[in-house]
Hints:
mainly alpha; Herpes Virus-1; 3 domains; elongated
Amino acid sequence: MPPATTSPLAQHRLALYGSASLVATSAVVMRAFKERANFYAATVWLGRSNGCILVLVNFGIFCTILFGKFCQAVFFGQLRPIEVEHLYERSWYAVTETLLAMTIFRDQFDASFIILFGTLLFLKVFHWLCADRVELMEQSPSLSRLFHARMVSVLWTLFCLDLFLVAFAIEVLILEQQRMGIMIMFASEFTILTATLWSTIAKYVLNCVDLRSDEPWEGKSMYVSAVDLVTDFLKLATYLCFFSLILTYYGLPLNIVRDVYVTGRSFFGRIRDLLRYRAATRNMDTRFPNATAEDLARTDATCIICRDEMVARGEGEFTPPGAVNDTPKKLACGHVFHFNCLRSWLERQQSCPT
């Protein structure tokens, strides 16, 4: 895993930001105790000043950043440049999307919203990092035990937190009807996080099984497709429920129109691809004829999918049970590929690889 170099400029900026936040916070706290002698009165004085609240919130953000960096060092170590880039892109979209949602729930904006939004964004960052690390497993031939220990720890921690927050949001919805609008939004967001985490955990397990296998796992892509299909279904159902409730009681929720469209398009696209795959792979052994020696002689006898040499099968030859079927198959377009390579390709795309 290539290490990412932390920019000295970024560290310097964070140090300056932290120093300024600490100085400002110390100043307002000292001013509060100067104005009021006891702790309770000083706290009340701070709570009545918008400027003091802003300074304290800013210091809270700085402390959250430090805690996030500590958790990142514990669970992930040094981040790769691509992971840092993904964090910036996704965080910007998540913030703008939530601000757009506030146009609907602006009457319910208070301190609890800031805490819930901060918690949501904080957890999203670690969900994104987990997904990136699971994708890294497919590119790395070997991974250390520390990598797996970190992944199991962070996935279990996030799973417990997601379930707790979903239960908390639903409980608030039931007990506090006056906060229904904003809690519907957070309940849906935490549910989406749980569905996304289920996908990440399932793919991590599949990758672990594949890494422990001596031979390439031909059926892995089908399991991955099934996980993606179930995840898209759960996310689409959640978005549609949230969309219907908000549309009924508050008006058109512009912040999730794009999410509903993108998730719905992805879900139905996966169903279409699955149906095409089943149609394309039905009776493959008899549907596509075996390539002869003459067919291979017209090409370089190399499967362009796996880059291995192809050898024509003689009359009566067959693949032993449990062995990889590397019989050269000839498509209607004239191109030739290994049977198992062609099947794996059709799981992803239902067209000739050339």
